[in-house]
Design a protein that fits this description.
Length: 704
């Protein structure tokens, strides 16, 4: 009781607690910023026998989890956003609208309303704020467009907008100093831009925002923690990888972007030049973001004179005509020219003079080579030259002893001596053929690697010894493209405990399911793409116990091994799996009730022979895989194999089609029969729809 008096008037507190003790009660505690505050409130609220409900709200995910679990509110739907927006502005003028879609009462304002709502992105605070602003204005399309154009420019001084900024400012000032700096850096990116997580963190590291020396972790790991903290505090909006469920990028809401741009301008943190700017900056540029606009000699001259002390320069494609000569930027740490066509410019002529450069991103810039002088950049940490027609990197690249991230294209080769880059944490794609086979041995020297993508024209046994030395690997992608099926090449490899992703593509097979594929060895494994020659029920049970597995592509080739048994996915197995692809099984897989509770997409590709499927999962001789036991199923595809046209195949196809149609979710489905006769294979689709999540081409013939 004493604790709760801290927050309420004593008389109100006493009356409230007496009432709560005697009657059923419902309490909402809004906007908790610290878990200690919630603990003080909670211990003061009585537990009674009548019943009670307590709801808390917070912008911080960690606080929500510690308070007892979180329900993450989704943005308002398009229609609900329109309802909130129009009813705040027009009141009951639209009460007679009986259509499912909420319509704007004024047709002239319909288009601009939709554009404003798109900027609000389903955030109730943003919708209410904008609606409150427009409710005080004339119902004039031009005035509404002025408001629309003002969002994100920091020029609107209306009281409602100011109130919202005060709310957002409170969130901003609650951030630790290091997170404020990292958040301000996001003002470098245009409105609605999808910001790649790895790209952003590397830029933070290059700028020196990541303090990692005394924390015993890599700078990228600390940067990931910073990034996740901004998500937890709702300052940025995460975007997830469709298959792995891991955060791959983020967006920043227009209202938040407006706020940090205003702060950034006040502190001369970032200078943004675009068509919105009519004059050149008047002070020294510390960080430059060129976002759009035609080439201006006045602007170029002014910019050149003010760039001498710049630390970051980011040029977006629409402003490629304004790319400044960076030779005089002696203090430049970050240079990002992604998607800027540099094929007809000499922008890289003085690249070797940027001795302080830490981050260089030349993704898809149409360059065919890098200058040999790049070896002068002894502080360089990130080099990204993907999607360029570069055949080989200059030999001086191996002198970059501080390089942590090297991203190259699949057709780009690296010179001998790559083993000197002992600070590398991320390497993709490393392509090895007959002319570069010696590089495999050097790979084992890169013991700091966390992410590795490697392609081989054919399997080489030396790779196994290298992988044994890479004990920090979290994401591993291996592709072998030529030669006979390599079976057992990776059998002796043991994955490190912190492995999150394994993608073994092409003709890279395990003999059996590796012993390390179990919850004890790889507790955080999220994405697994693997091919095994032999699979038994116990193996499937072990896979089902992986606590974090979200994506599974399991390919089996046991046709000639005499294993004639169906497999069962038992209750409680695969608790987090959302995408499942079973390829080339001989016998069917039956899903029992309680299995795969989160599965949304299921593919059984050339899974089994129709003849062997008779009576599977059904007492009447039919085919029942238990699709109805998958409560979250949204997409389903299957390809049955049959030696020749038969009634059994038709019955099996009909049974699967019926199961999909009778499922409560009515999942989108496609079912085929692959007739393996003497003639060429024939592919017969059951329905015309192909699930968008499927990873196979609909027009590829199924081979025997």
């Amino acid at each position: 009781m004493n604790n709760i008096r801290t927050f309420f008037h004593p008389k109100i507190t006493s009356l409230f607690l007496i009432t709560c003790d005697m009657f059923r009660y419902f309490v909402v505690v809004d906007d908790i910023w610290d878990i200690s505050v919630w603990k003080r409130i909670r211990c003061a609220l009585p537990d009674n026998d009548v019943g009670y409900t307590i709801i808390t709200t917070t912008r911080i995910s960690d606080v929500a989890e510690q308070a007892g679990g979180a329900y993450k509110l989704k943005p308002l739907s398009s229609n609900n956003s329109r309802k909130l927006f129009f009813r705040r502005i027009f009141g009951n003028e639209n009460k007679d609208n009986n259509e499912e879609i909420e319509k704007c009462p004024d047709d002239e304002l319909a288009e601009v309303s939709d554009r404003i709502l798109k900027k609000c992105a389903g955030v109730p605070l943003a919708i209410i704020t904008m609606a409150s602003l427009l409710a005080c204005k004339a119902r004039n399309k031009l005035e509404w467009y002025e408001v629309y154009n003002s969002v994100g420019t920091g020029m609107e001084n209306n009281m409602d907008v100011e109130n919202m900024r005060k709310i957002l400012s409170f969130s901003y000032y609650e951030l630790p100093c290091h997170l404020r700096t990292c958040l301000l850096y996001l003002s470098m990116f245009p409105e609605d831009f999808e910001i790649d997580k790895d790209r952003l963190i590397r830029m933070w590291i290059a700028e020196g925002f990541i303090q990692w020396e005394k924390q015993g972790k890599s700078p990228f790991e600390i940067g990931e923690f910073y990034f996740n903290e901004l998500i937890n505090r709702s300052m940025i909006q995460p975007i997830y990888n469709f298959y792995t469920g891991m955060v791959k990028s983020c967006r920043i809401h227009d209202m938040v972007l407006d706020l940090i741009r205003s702060f950034s301008c006040e502190e001369n943190f970032v200078t943004i030049l675009s068509d919105m700017d009519s004059t050149a900056p008047s002070s020294t540029i510390r960080r430059l973001s060129l976002q759009n606009g035609k080439k201006s000699h006045v602007m170029a001259q002014a910019t050149r004179n003010l760039l001498q002390h710049a630390r970051s320069v980011v040029i977006f494609p629409a402003a490629v005509a304004q790319v400044p000569a960076a030779g005089s930027c002696r203090f430049l740490r970050v240079l990002d020219l992604e998607h800027c066509n540099l094929s007809h410019t000499d922008s890289l002529k003085y690249l070797g003079n940027l001795y302080q450069l830490r981050y260089l991103r030349l993704y898809s810039t149409h360059i065919s080579q890098l200058p040999e002088e790049i070896g002068n950049l002894q502080f360089l940490q990130t080099l990204d030259v993907r999607s360029n027609p570069i055949s080989i990197l200059p030999s001086s690249v191996v002198q970059l002893r501080n390089l942590m991230c090297l991203d190259i294209g699949e057709t780009t080769r690296v010179p001998n001596g790559i083993g000197n880059l002992t600070c590398l944490e991320q390497l993709s794609w490393l392509c090895i053929d007959g002319s570069t086979i010696n590089i495999i041995e050097e790979l084992g020297q890169l013991t700091e690697l966390r992410q590795l993508r490697i392609e081989l024209d054919k399997w080489n046994d030396k790779l196994l010894g290298c992988l044994h030395k890479l004990q920090k690997i979290q994401e591993l992608r291996i592709a072998v493209h030529r030669g006979p099926h390599n079976i057992g090449g990776l059998d002796a490899w043991v994955a490190p405990r912190h492995l999150r992703l394994l993608n073994a593509k092409g003709i890279c097979w395990f003999s059996t399911l590796p012993a390390w594929v179990n919850p004890s060895f790889v507790p955080v494994l999220t994405c697994l793409r693997i091919a095994v020659r032999e699979l038994h029920q116990v193996d499937l049970d072990i896979l089902g116990r992986l606590p974090a597995l979200r994506f599974l592509m399991l390919k089996v080739d046991n046709k000639n091994l005499g294993i004639l048994q169906g497999l069962i996915v038992s209750p409680g197995s695969f608790p987090c799996l959302e995408f499942c692809y079973f390829l080339k099984f001989v016998w069917p897989v039956v899903f029992q009730k309680g299995a795969m509770p989160r599965l949304t997409s299921l593919s059984l590709w050339r899974l089994f022979y129709a003849r062997e499927a008779r009576g599977i999962g059904s007492s009447d001789g039919g085919l029942d895989l238990g699709l109805g036991n998958l409560p979250s199923l949204q997409d389903f595809e299957a390809a049955l194999r049959c030696e020749d046209p038969s009634e059994e195949a038709k019955q099996a196809k009909a049974a699967l089609t019926h199961a999909a149609e009778m499922h409560p979710n009515h999942p989108r489905h496609s079912i085929w029969i692959d007739y393996e006769g003497a003639l060429a294979p024939v592919l017969i689709p059951c329905v015309s729809f192909f699930p968008p999540c499927a990873i196979f081409s609909r027009f590829v013939l199924l081979q025997s």
